[in-house]
Amino acid sequence: xAALLSLFMAIILPSCEERINxxxxxxxxxxxxxxxxxxxxxxxxxxxxxxxxxxxxxxxEGISGAAVVIRQGAESYAMTESASDPGVYQTIDxxxxxxxxxxxxxxxxxxxxxxxxxxxxxxxxxxxVSQLDSIAVQKSALSDHxxxxxxxxxxxxxxxxxFNFRLYRNNVIVNDSLQGFSVGDDSFMQRKVIxxxxxxxxxxQRESSVLTPGDFLTLQIDGITSExxxxxxxxxxxxxxxxxxxxAPPANVETNIRSLSxxxxxxxxxxxxxxxxxxxxxx
Amino acid sequence: xxxxxxxxxxxLLFILSTIFALxxxxxxxxxxxxxxxxxxxxxxxxxxxxxxxTRTGTVANNYGYYSISLDEGSYVLAFSYxxxxxxxxxxxxxxxYRLNVELEDDARELSEVVVSAERRNANVxxxxxxxxxxxxxxxxxxxxxxxxxDVIKAVQLLPGVQSTSEGSSGFSVRGGGHDQNxxxxxxATVYNASHLMGFFSVFNxxxxxxxxxxxxxxxxxxxxxxSSLLDIRTKDGNNQRYAATGGIGLISSRITAExxxxxxxxxxxxxxxxxxxxxxxxxxxxxxxxxxxxxxxMNAKLNYRIDDNNxxxxxxxxxxxxxxxxxxxxxxxxxxxxxxxxxxxxPKLFSNFTLIGSSYDYYLRSEISxxxxxxxxxxxxxxxxKADFSYHPNPVNNVKFGYQFIYHVFMPxxxxxxxxxxxAGRISLPKEFAAENVFYVTNETDIASKLxxxxxxxxxxxxxxxxxxLSNTMQQLEPRLGLTYVFSDLHxxxxxxxxxxxxxxxxxxSSAGSPLDLWFQASxxxxxxxxxxxxxGYFRNFGDDEYEFSSEVYYKDMKDVVDFKDHANLIxxxxxxxxxxxxxxxxxxxxxxxxxxxxxxxxxxxxxxSKSRRRIDGVNEGLEYRSPYDKPHNISIxxxxxxxxxxxxxxxWVYASGTPVTYPTxxxxxxxxxxxxxxxxxxxxYPDYHRLDxxxxxxxxxxxxxxxxxxxxxLYNAYGRxxxxxxxxxxxxxxxxxxxxxxxxxFTFLPSITWxxxx
Lengths: 283, 759
Known about the structure:
The structure holds two protein chains of two kinds.
Chain A: H1 2-11, E1 16-20, E2 31-38, E3 45-50, E4 52-53, E5 61-62, E6 67-72, E7 75-81, E8 88-90, E9 102-109, E10 118-125, E11 131-139, E12 146-154, E13 162-169, E14 172-173, E15 182-185, E16 193-203, E17 216-224, H2 226-240, E18 258-259, E19 266-280
Parallel strand pairs in A: 2-19
Antiparallel strand pairs in A: 2-3, 3-5, 3-8, 6-7, 6-9, 7-8, 9-10, 10-18, 11-12, 12-16, 13-14, 13-15, 13-17, 17-19
Chain B: H1 2-23, E1 29-37, E2 48-51, E3 57-59, E4 65-70, E5 73-80, E6 87-93, E7 97-98, E8 101-103, H2 122-125, E9 131-135, H3 136-141, H4 151-155, E10 161-163, E11 171-173, E12 181-185, E13 188-189, E14 194-195, E15 200-201, E16 208-214, E17 228-234, E18 243-248, E19 252-261, E20 265-274, H5 286-289, E21 292-307, E22 310-324, E23 328-346, E24 349-366, E25 374-394, E26 397-417, E27 426-428, E28 432-446, E29 451-466, E30 469-486, E31 491-502, E32 504-507, E33 518-521, E34 529-542, E35 547-564, E36 580-596, E37 601-616, E38 625-626, E39 633-642, E40 647-656, E41 660-661, E42 664-670, E43 673-678, E44 684-685, E45 689-699, E46 708-716, E47 726-731, E48 739-745, E49 750-758
Parallel strand pairs in B: 1-7, 1-8, 12-17
Antiparallel strand pairs in B: 1-4, 2-3, 2-5, 5-6, 9-16, 10-11, 12-13, 14-15, 16-17, 18-19, 18-49, 19-20, 20-21, 21-22, 22-23, 23-24, 24-25, 25-26, 26-27, 26-28, 28-29, 29-30, 30-31, 31-34, 32-33, 34-35, 35-36, 36-37, 37-38, 37-39, 39-40, 40-45, 41-44, 42-43, 45-46, 46-49, 47-48
């Protein structure tokens, strides 16, 4: 559908664009809590920022002084605020999530400055790990200037898996923004074995995704929850915008951050599994 | 079951009381027959018959048939139809009398752009309100996008009608949804009336004879949609001589051939095809050069006059859009077929029996790679029959009654992986079935010399069908009431009430409509939509009926209207009904129209002031919000000026308040991207919309030539207004913390040229 829509816009609607000014009132500022825990052993982080007017030109303001804890059963990982990055709260270096466990995020802070702290919580189960055997790169049928990364492996034996692919080139992530995420699921797939399926596409006319011979490529598959997949899909959709005939009305992206005080929050907390496969790019 | 029986008894009581009232009339004789165009033999729908010197008369029905019953005596009957020479016939009435009349085209009188009432002051003296009639000739004179004359684009210029978006064939009537319009082509439902993603409608104007839009006072013989009926009738085919009409335009060509088949039959075939894909050969991208982009459609009709009392019509439509490239594509189209039998039981009793078939389907495919190759099909089919009767017991009563049955087959979706290498499995959502039974009766009567009453009752039953059995039945009585007080031939006041029910709904998450929209049925969990509409109007003519003024005020109360949850998934979703949200809505407005009906300068000015709101649980936190079609101010000016016998200039200017829209009012950042936080639903509006279109028609042939041809030059959006089609929100690439709004606009200064011919 996305390919068809792109084609439609390119062929039927060679429309024109013009930047315009829109006068809107600002929505009330809300806390934005975003973070995750993965199966990698590492320092995990959660960011807490304040939402802003849509046409603000400043980077989001981090919220300091929050108490942030991730809990799983009897275990808890207290997070401390980064000294260099206000509003970013981190675990110690050696934390790793476990498949099948449910993780709960607890945040306590005084967001509205009334002297009373509010509590925010979210939880996520950590889905199983997918098996990645190998990857390859080939020209894509999408256009003359697209490459596609193919993947071989096996998805976990559960009814529906949701996943996200990230590509690293020479250990630097290529699809590092929300729009670049490649989220999918296997609800319509007839088997769990993946044999040379396109994981993501690389536009060779875009500098940030150009591959050169000898590049070391690593494809990461994240086993994510259906709720997080929905969050990514909806956020991508709202970022992309819509056209009258195919566009649904704009709508806020649903969050799993629950506020116990009535203050609306945005963002997401999730847990996901990780696996990787690598190759050297030789066209 | 008891409730159903009660409603049947009520309907029977209504019918019997009507018949009893009518039977209390003395012995009368009946003059009846057909009113046709002398040159082509086409039936003149809505032509008027009056007893000269009185207001007593009737109008020809959709098959050109009229019937008027009078006491024995001598009468002069005057036959008239706008654009035709009036004809008077003296009748000595001693027995029932058959009188077929042919009217001559009056080229002097005929103006180009006329939203016609059947007779010069029909807008004043007839009992209906909230309806507008357009002739094919009127539609042709209106400047068109890319020169493609378009029925629906013309309809969008009428008061109370709004385009759903720039260039779209979707329309909203009196604040209703684009899915609430019943569009009939020769009585068959057209489920998706758009070509080329909505930029053109499926109706080839060369094949169209008559277009009537009912905005509220929908006749009891029709129903099934909440807001309007667009009744399109195609030509029967010239039964006097062979003729051809055609045109060659920038993006399409069309041809129509018609003529007699022996003494009793005539036929018409009309076809057109776009060749927009030819221009893709010049595209820069190779993938676009190989793309497919075209539509075609064909109308055909055969009519056969068995004898004076029996006539058969066989009509069909086939249209298809194809769009795509190597990696993806889609196709969609409608098919309709109707077989009608007109039978005159007696001069007073006219009947029409119709068999109807209609279908719509779409196809999607994706072939990015052999593993990801997928397809999807979806659609629906209707099979139906109708029996309609008109009974004309006397000049002051016109009774219509009938029965309709429709069997719906819904195909929500089937598809999946294509080929052995595809990783996707197949999925098939089960077909759904439904049946509709409808009985109706209506009467138009003059209850006093100046007071006309129209009353009717429609009894609709909708049945879900599972395993060949009726599993759930919904039913509703739909009363229609209209009152007209004629002060004089020059002005009148009218009032009306109607209840409409919609049993099938459109799963469309867009406000403009798309080819992928899916129809689904009311059921135990999805209530039918219901609307009560009240309207009052004042109608006044000036200057020997050359100027017509109308004003109507309406109020609509809608129940169980459908919307969808945020981020609803409506394609191949087996739990689609989980995505639905239900609530209520209302709309009200004032419609003003002043039109000039003949002379070198003709046209109309209309203004609509309106409001349309929805309140739906699960949408906008349950708070009331503007419907997507809420545009408080709407102006249309349509003008045609005959500069000389060879040149005519047409212009239309439209203005509408901006479409309601939900804007982002906040943002938050995750994964290096800003995600919008939105205002309340439809809290803001796009900038106001306005546009001027011009066209110049140059007759190249001399008047009276058998072969006539003309050039039509048109300019869409003549002053290049950059109307917002949509507004996108983006981040600057070099300053990623800076968000901005970008207006997308489609057409500025779009010229076109079309050569039309006729012989």
